[in-house]
Amino acid sequence: SCLIHYLLFCSVQVNSEDLRLTVYDETEGKWRLLCSSSSDAQVAALSCEEMGFVRSLSHSVLNAGSAGANGTSGYFCVDESRLPFVQKLREAIVVCECLTGRILATLCQDCGRRKLSVDRIVGGQDASVGKWPWQVSLRYDGTHLCGGSIISNEWVVTAAHCFPERNRVLYRWQVFMGAVSQLSIRGLQMDIASIVYHGGYRPFVDPNSEENSNDIALLRLATPLSFN
User: Fold this and answer.
1) In a domain, 58, yes or no
2) For the residues 61-82, what does the mean pLDDT come to?
3) Is residue 93 domain-shared with residue 157, that is, in the same domain?
4) How does pLDDT run across 175-211, given as a tens digit for each residue?
């Protein structure tokens, strides 16, 4: 018996020692190894993206026996017929026996992320000038209201709560970037073409809601950026 059931939820991790992929089985409450397949490259790319990395730099195959359990129990296999049509790994994996005994490992690219010198915000440490060039200031009528991060030449990610109904007039918003001070005259100020809110942010549906999940929004710039 191989295919048992499709999962509703999963979480993906990469082991820091041998880079093997492990996926959390929400139904059984345990971590499983991911059986290797002919679609390893696509699975590795999808897994890295799901974990928030830029991309998969490389992938390899390990022997399940030599890898050891290390808290895992059992395997997932990829349903390759579903893989081209999914955006999340959980939508294309099934519990299996992994008869080959070969499991997938991958190395993800973490470009664009800086490791903090301390693991807490409270009492933290001042950032060095110019070390966070993707950080921007979101200004409403010229006044700073929120921060954001550049994620491409056209998009900035920020929080949905920055845009209550009274603050949704697009032409009054600007994105200020390329400067290290709010008082700088050397920064670049750009208009916003559109705002995309997460559909699951409850306060926009129910004003009395105190639920803060899905507090995220995307801003599309009116003019694409030119990176140097």
Assistant:
1) yes
2) 80
3) no
4) 999 887 777 777 889 999 999 988 888 887 777 777 7
Q: Which residue has the higher pLDDT, 30 or 228?
A: 30
Domain enclosing residue 76, as ranges: 12-109
Q: Are 154 and 224 in contact (CB under 8 A)?
A: yes
Spatial neighbors of 215 by CB under 8 A, at least 6 apart, are 159, 160, 161, 198, 201
| Domain of residue 181, CATH code | 2.40.10.10
Compute CA distances 180 → 129, 139, 188, whole Å: 7, 15, 11
Alpha-carbon span 39 to 79, nearest angstrom? 10
Residue 114 in this model has a pLDDT that exceeds 70: no
State the Cα–Cα distance between residues 191 and 185, nearest whole angstrom: 17
Question: Rounded to an integer, what distance in angstroms lies between the CA atom of residue 56 and that of residue 46?
Answer: 8
Instruction: Tell me the β-bridge partners of 107.
Output: 58
State the Cα–Cα distance between residues 56 and 39, nearest whole angstrom. Answer: 13
Regarding whether 141 and 95 lie in a shared domain, the answer is: no
The rounded distance, in Å, linking the Cα atoms of 13 and 32 is 10
Q: Is 132 left (phi over 0), alpha (psi -120 to 50) or beta?
A: beta
Identify the three-state secondary structure at position 172.
Answer: helix
Highest mean pLDDT among 44-48, 68-72, 107-111: 44-48
C-alpha radius of gyration, the chain, whole number: 22
For the beta carbon of residue 131, count every other beta carbon within 10 angstroms.
9
